[in-house]
Design goal:
Blueprint (H helix, E strand, L loop, with lengths): L2 H4 E4 L8 E6 L17 E6 L16 H18 L4 E6 L1 H16 L4 E7 L9 H6 L3 H11 L10 H20 L11 E6 L7 H4 L10 E6 L10 H9 L11
Parallel strand pairs: 2-3, 2-4, 4-5, 5-6, 6-7
Antiparallel strand pairs: 1-3
Helix pairs in contact: 2-3
Length: 252
C-alpha cells in the first residue's frame, strides 16, 4: 500500500495550518472531493479508497472494517508525528468510516481526535430495500445517483465513465448495506450536519447519532441537498474553530 495514494492532502498555498481535518468521503467518491473543504487555517487529509482515482486498478474494499483498517495504517504516522488539533469528518457513507475510525483512535490513541463530524447520514443499521434493488441494475443505480444530486447526468452517458463511477459506488454502497450494527459508543465530542433539502438524511434522524457519544453534541444546519456541505464548507470550519458553537446557514 502506497500511503501517498491512500491519502490526498489539501492545503491553501502559502498557508500554515493550525489544525487538521481527516475526511472520509461519500460512496463512490475519492480524495479529490477533499479539495472543496480546504481552508486557510486547516490541512485536509482525505481518505482515497481503492478502486478510484490513482487507485483505480486496486480492488475496492469489501467492508467498512477493511476500509477503516487501511485508513488507520495510513494516518497513524501523521497523527503520531505532531500534535496538530485533529477533527474527523465523515460525509454520507463516509460517516460510517469516520465513527469506526474515531473508535479505533479512542482505543489506541486516547484524546488524539478532537471532534467527530457526521454529515448527511442516518446511523446504522439503515436497511434500504430500494437501494438494494438498485444495486442489481446499472440504470436503476444511475437514476438513484442522479436523483441524489452532485453528478452530471451527461457524465454517465459514456460507457467508460459510467463504469468508472458506478464500480466504486456499488462497492461502497454494498459495504454500507452490509454494515448492520449500531455505531460504537464514543467519548469524543460530536457535530451532526444536515441540509434542509436532503430527504435521505432528515435532521431528526441524523441527530440520533447523539445517542452514541457521552460527550457534548452540536448541530450544523445547511440549505440545499445531500451534498450541501461542499458548497458551504466555511460554515463547517466556523463550527470547528469554535467548539461548542452550532452555526447555521442564514435564513432565506
Amino acid at each position: 500500500m502506497a500511503t501517498h495514494n491512500v491519502l490526498a492532502r489539501w492545503v491553501t498555498p502559502g498557508s500554515h495550518p493550525q489544525r487538521r481535518l481527516v475526511f472520509f468521503p461519500h460512496a463512490g467518491a475519492g480524495g479529490l472531493t477533499g479539495r472543496s473543504l480546504a481552508a486557510d487555517d486547516a490541512e485536509v487529509l482525505a481518505h482515497r479508497r481503492p478502486g478510484r482515482e490513482a487507485r483505480m486498478a486496486e480492488p475496492a474494499a469489501s467492508s467498512v472494517e477493511e476500509a477503516v483498517q487501511e485508513a488507520v495504517e495510513a494516518l497513524l504516522p501523521t497523527l503520531d508525528a505532531d500534535d496538530l488539533p485533529t477533527d474527523v469528518l465523515g460525509h454520507s457513507f463516509g460517516a460510517l468510516l469516520g465513527a469506526e475510525f474515531v473508535a479505533r483512535m479512542e482505543r489506541d490513541r486516547p484524546g488524539r481526535i478532537r471532534r467527530l463530524v457526521v454529515s448527511a447520514k442516518v446511523p446504522p443499521p439503515d436497511p434500504s430495500p430500494e437501494l438494494s434493488e438498485a444495486l442489481r441494475d446499472d440504470q436503476a443505480l444511475v437514476a438513484w445517483l442522479v436523483d441524489l444530486g452532485g453528478t452530471p447526468p451527461e457524465l454517465l452517458e459514456d460507457p467508460v465513465m459510467r463504469s468508472m463511477v458506478l464500480d466504486p459506488l456499488r462497492a461502497d454502497l454494498t459495504a454500507s448495506l452490509g454494515h448492520d450494527r449500531e455505531p460504537p459508543l464514543l467519548n469524543t465530542p460530536l457535530l451532526t450536519v444536515t441540509a434542509d433539502g436532503d430527504a435521505t438524511a432528515p435532521a431528526q434522524d441524523v441527530d440520533s447519532w447523539s445517542h452514541f457519544t457521552t460527550a457534548p453534541v452540536g448541530t450544523l444546519r445547511l440549505h440545499g441537498g445531500h451534498h450541501a456541505l461542499f458548497e458551504q464548507a466555511e460554515l463547517l470550519h466556523q463550527a470547528l474553530r469554535e467548539p461548542g458553537s452550532s452555526p447555521s446557514a442564514p435564513e432565506r
